[in-house]
Specification:
The complex is a heterodimer of chains A (114) and B (113). With 114 residues, chain A is mostly beta strands. Helix content of chain A is 0%, strand content 50%. Chain A has strands at 4-7, 10-13, 19-25, 31-38, 42-51, 54-57, 65-66, 76-78, 87-94, 104-105, 109-113. In chain A, the strands form two sheets. In chain A, strands 2, 4, 5, 6, 9, 10 and 11 form a seven-stranded mixed sheet that branches. Chain A has a four-stranded antiparallel sheet with strand order 1-3-8-7, with no helix packed on it. The relative contact order of chain A is 0.33. Chain B has no helices and eleven strands. Chain B has strands at 4-5, 10-14, 19-25, 32-38, 45-51, 56-59, 62-67, 72-77, 86-93, 102-103, 107-112. Chain B is globular, with a radius of gyration of 13 Å. Chain B is mostly beta strands and 113 residues long. The chains are: A mainly beta (114), B mainly beta (113). At the A-B interface, β5 and β10 of A face β5 and β9 of B.
């Protein structure tokens, strides 16, 4: 089954404790991205990757890191989480980077930073 | 300032009737528009899209209308079914911004029996 998986689905942590949210897709997609969804704001892009070892900032990259060492995986790293990073996070992938290509989303990770 | 706005946080429609979800945008350079649908505890899924060279695109019960002069698009669902209850996101992109998607805040559609 074609899918994007994220782990963990739910996470409660404390300020400053490094964490990683994993994302994996099995569709051999080149393009992957991370979004956060906050009430009243829709989805905002954090980082995206057009291919292995190619990553770039989205609209809200501060406080986040990513890596793309393999085509299928695109982990999101919060080196020192803060309460303003409490949000719902989605990973997405598509065959290519054009917006005309349908993005496939993971189920989301709800992160709470205390 | 949000470039894509969905001014109705929620909408309630009787089953069998037409649902109309609206989306306004401010950037005249947007040339591709999409609607995504999201159920609770799931990620968004693609529903329908429209290019700026068209003013209408239809897929089964779903039709998207684009009014470029008004910078407005709408999604029509006819007839509305209980399974259509979800949050609907409007998104837009422009070639000159590397096709980055700009998303609206979403409208929660509730279909009443």
């Amino acid at each position: 089954e074609a899918q994007v998986t994220q782990n963990p689905r739910y996470l409660i942590t404390v300020t400053g404790k490094k964490l990683t949210v994993t994302c994996s897709q099995n569709m051999n997609h080149e393009y992957m991205s991370w979004y956060r969804q906050d009430p009243g704001l829709g989805l905002r892009q954090i980082y995206y990757s057009m291919n292995v070892e190619v990553t770039d900032k989205g609209d809200v990259p501060e406080g986040y890191k990513v890596s793309r060492k393999e085509k299928r995986n695109f982990p999101l790293i919060l080196e020192s989480p803060s309460p303003n990073q409490t949000s719902l996070y989605f990973c997405a992938s598509s065959f290519a980077w054009a917006s005309t290509d349908t993005q496939y989303f993971g189920p989301g990770t709800r992160l709470t930073v205390l | 300032d949000q470039q894509v706005k969905q001014n109705s946080p929620s909408l309630s429609v009787q089953e069998g009737r037409i649902s109309i979800l609206n989306c306004d945008y401010t950037n005249s350079m947007f040339d591709y528009f999409l609607w995504y649908k999201k159920y609770p505890a799931e990620g968004p899924t693609f529903l329908i899209s429209i290019s700026s060279i068209k003013d209408k695109n239809e897929d089964g019960r779903f039709t998207v209308f684009l009014n470029k002069s008004a910078k407005h698009l709408s999604l029509h669902i006819v007839p509305s079914q209980p399974g259509d209850s979800a949050v609907y996101f409007c998104a837009a992109s422009a070639r000159d911004s590397n096709y980055q998607l700009i998303w609206g805040a979403g409208t929660k559609l509730i279909i009443k029996p």
